[in-house]
Specification:
Chain B: This is DNA repair exonuclease SbcCD ATPase subunit. The complex is a heterodimer of chains A (403) and B (879). With 403 residues, chain A is α/β, with parallel strands linked by helices. Chain A contains 10 helices and 18 strands. Chain A has 2 domains: 254 residues, Purple Acid Phosphatase, chain A, domain 2, CATH 3.60.21; 140 residues, no CATH class. Among the domains of chain B are: 241 residues, Rossmann fold, CATH 3.40.50; 184 residues, Helix Hairpins (Orthogonal Bundle). The chains are: A alpha/beta (403), B alpha+beta (879). Chains A and B meet through helix 2, helix 9 and helix 10 of A and helix 5, helix 6, helix 7, helix 15 and helix 16 of B.
Amino acid sequence: MRFLHTADWQLGMTRHYLSPAAQARSTEARFEAVRRLGAVAAEHGCAFVVVAGDVFETNRVGRDVVARACEAMAEVPVPVLLLPGNHDPLDAGSVMTSALFRRLAPPHVTVLDGTPVEVAGVQVLSAPWRSKRPVEDLAARACEGLAAEPGVRRVLVAHGTVLEFGSSSPDPALVDLAALERLLEAGALDAVCLGDRHSTTEVGRTGRVWYAGAPEPTDHDELDPGNVLVVDLGDEDLLLPGPGGRPAPEVTRVPVGRWRFHRERRELSTDEDVDELERLLAGLPDKSRTALKLAVVGTLSLAQKARVDALLEHSADLLGALQVWERRSDLVVRPDADDLDALALTGFAREAAEALAARAEAPAVADLVAGGTGGERGRVPVTPDAVAAQDALSLLHRLAAAG
Amino acid sequence: MRVLRLRLQNFRGVADREVTPAPTGVTVLAGDNEVGKTSLVEALDMLLDEYDDARKKAVRRTQPVGQDVPTVVEAEVQAGAHRFTYRKQWHRQPSTRLVVHEPAPEQLAGREAHDWVLAVLGAEVDLPLWRALRLQQGVPLEQADLQARSSLAQALDATVAGTVGGEREETLVARAEEEFLRYWTPTGGRRTEARTLEADVAAASARVTALEAEVAGVERVVERLDRARADAADERAAGAQDAAAVRDAEERVADLHGVVRAVEVARGALAAADAAAATAERERAGRRALLARAEEAREAAAERDVAAATAAADLAAAEDHLRAVARELELARDAAAARREEREDALAAEQRHAEVVEVTRLRAVLADAVAAQRRVAAAEEAVAAAPVDDAALALVEDAARALAVAAARAGAATPVVVLEGAGRTLLTSDGERVLDEGPEEVRLVGGTWFEAGGVRVSARPSADQERAEADARRAEDALAGLCARLGVDDAAAAATAARARREATAELERARDAARRAASGEDLDAARRRVARADDLEGSPDAAAGADDAAADAGAATGEHLRRRREEADGALGAADLAVVRAGVRLEAAREAVDGAAARSADRTAAATAADARERVVLDELAGARAALPDDRAAEDAEDALRRRGEAAASLAVAEAAVAVAGVADAQAELDLRRARLLDGQKRLRAHEDEVGALTAVLEAQGGLGLAEQLGQARAEEERARRALVAWDRRATAARTLHEALQAARASAHAAYVEPLRAQLHRLAVPVFGPDVQVEVGPDLRVVSRTLGGVTVPFEQLSAGAREQLALLGRLACAVLVSGGAGVPVVVDDALGWSDPRRLDGMARALSVAGASCQVLVLTCVPDRYRLVTGARTERLHA
């Protein structure tokens, strides 16, 4: 008996660093992911799909998002069970209880409101979020008084951070993993499908508790997003009564995400470094669905900086998103003698260029004087005047290069 | 660059000329006007700048007029380490040839040679400076524009530590300024674009804030809705508990049913007793009322009978009265008829009397009229009897006057003789005559004669006398004839007759007047007819006349009497008519009175009948009631019922006291309380449900708006706007930083390199202006002012001579400064025309000083000006 475990679709999600066009592509990609996981479910013979929370980015999504979500779910060929999560809690404003959703949702879509649901011979328990600030362990509440029953297979669908074994937290809403594992070991539960963490993750030691991760990545800090899980509970006939007598389910991760979120940190100090950066940027596949967060440090000459600027400008045109991580980008422009010679300036113009170069380097020099490294490792204190001087030099470089 | 040799062939007016300037020092090329001095400079320019096949007008014009010959320019030039001979031929068989002598011999031709020369000169020579350092004819007072000369900059740079840029640097400054002005106004203000970007950021932020508020609002609604739902759920649970409590209380109340039942029974008995007592009392009261009604009916019937009798009597009286009034009316009508007859008689008498009076008057009138007619006829006869009217009298009087005149004339014409002879007799034609004592005059009319003493004296009239006498006779005849015709004797008789006629005529007038008066205002024919009618009526006219007379006698008295009699009859008739009307009115009233009385009588009779009927009915009813229940039994029944009711009330009080003892009231109160609480709870539940409904509607309305996405997009928009602004600021700051840095460096460089030029200029100026001269040079390397003898004069206000001198000195100073590898010759073309001899000497010394380090070519037609130049080479140019 197989089913498909997914979570954190976050339909209707926006990202401030995406251009309107990239945002549109990103939004579309989330609906496409739903269609693809439907295809995966069919391909793997899954009996149903559980979505462990955060189906929608918020309860405040537009009509179009609801409509397109329902349209995409209609293409999933098996029952779809939706759990309200912290993004879309089952509160009074829940999108999943709205008139629009009720009207548009295909008949094989069920919203898990805590009532056990029987599907394909499996009892699905659910721990929906009913507000954004639950005051108890919803999973524990869903399993209250649960005991093993012969011939009954149960799957719990829950959402949130787990309180790992042996740790403690003042947050009463954390999912108590230990308690769940006791139930799993007692045979009262067969699997726990979690949502909230966007990276596909197995937790605990039973092999039965998983975070499916987001089917489309949402941010740069996700380790292994873009997957869905095909969970095989095994053949019903082979079920052996008693604790420990059952084999752990077979869990297969299937990638469905198309977007990639990369984070890169580059030291740029030599022409070779710039070459390397160029290769990196050129080598990114599927650029229009790639969001790159780039931190660059180092010391560049005017010419190198001009090259880097041109490279980044070009990449920004191609990529889904390019964020230059400014807070950690201590990229110092330090015009060298070659730079100044290359400008082929004489007289006062050369003097002006040298004066600007001195201003650009002033923080680095001060850092050296104060016993620092002079910013060679990209940690130069930057002053507005130094930045202005660097920019002025870049501009001078551009103007001079114009002939 | 040094020009070592220059040769022109067929260049404008110059057929063939070669000059060899001194490599260093002053070369004076002297020649008369139009000998072609300026052509030397132009030829050198053309050699360097123009291709041999150039078709420009300036090039074509160098060919001598009317000669199909090639123009050739050839120069030997030293430029840095290079020395070469460069030759170009134009117009015919164009060619370019270059022979390089140093550093390595080489030969080139055509474009290759041209390019080679340009490359070498470009590298070694500051060509713009070469042009700037010329002091040309026609523009002698200009100072050289030295600012953008890189060789000068380098020279100055070599002299001082300052730096000056060249054209490239100036271009960069211009571009930096252009870039600066993209972001900043010339006065340093930020361009509108910045404000637009800021406005974009502000607008985006405002949208984010607004959307955040909206989202927060929705979140609040969600929270309220959740709360309301929870409250409703709580209320439902409480309601269920309340309902259970109500059921409990109801059960308790049911347990106390027996006690309560006794009360119910007692209550029922009391109610039944109440009803029975009420019935009996009703019966008794009904009997009393029936008796009263029977009495009442009897009285009413009697009363109605009396009233009917009275009404019948009233009717009879009214009918009597009606008859009496009718009789009165008849009498009044008869009296009125009698009065009317009397009045008719009186009126007829009055009218007859008036007729008689009138006829009498008419008879008098008619008599007067007849008398007047008669008088008129008499007067007419009298008039007819007196034929001499005034006109005829006038004729007679005229004739008498004519006769008198004629007689007088005849008398005058007759001679007069005087007869004297007292007492003597004389015979005369008239008989004898005795003379009187005195003279006597006698007229001698024709035929007259005297005789005395036998002498007869006869008078024979003269012609005049005869004529006059004839006239007199005719006049006498005329008068006589007239009188005869009128039937009078003479004029006097005529006058008397005329007077009689006048009197008769007057009488006629008066008679006619009388006749007219008699007929005045009367129709005499009508009067006659009326009189005739009266006569017919009255019988004979005489009788009538008699009656008339009698009537006339009775006169006015009778008329008055008859009028009064008639008026009295009028009055009597009016009174009689009035009496009739009044009697009629009374009759009408009497009739109405009879009608009214008759109606009343009928009413009363009917009422009396009805009252009798009612009395019979009531009496029947009473009889029936008494048959069913005698009067005394009804009273007894009522008393019994009242007693039984009192007994039932006492039983109820006993039963209720028993209920109070059993605590039934508390149980009931508890039940009521529970029920009230349940109702309150249901009300609260409805309120919560209403709120849930309202908030749900709000949420549904907000739900599809996609506020969260809008907020996300707004944040993205804000981020973009902020980045755009930051980027703009950064670019603007960079542009300003660069612009300011370049400007500052340029200003300070200019300030630094002014000094060596000023020092060099001062060195050259001393020979010209004297040792105490001071020259100020501006940042643009132009002379700002000259100070001499403590007096500072701005360059523009100096004399033409001084300006010319300083312009040349400036070029020489520059040339000296750059006389190294990149140096160029200074060319002075016929300058110093404004300089006086003393200054010319000074300029010559300055040229000598400059010539020590650079090549100076002086073209002049006045070589004397430069005679004091030390070591100058002079070449004379001939046509």
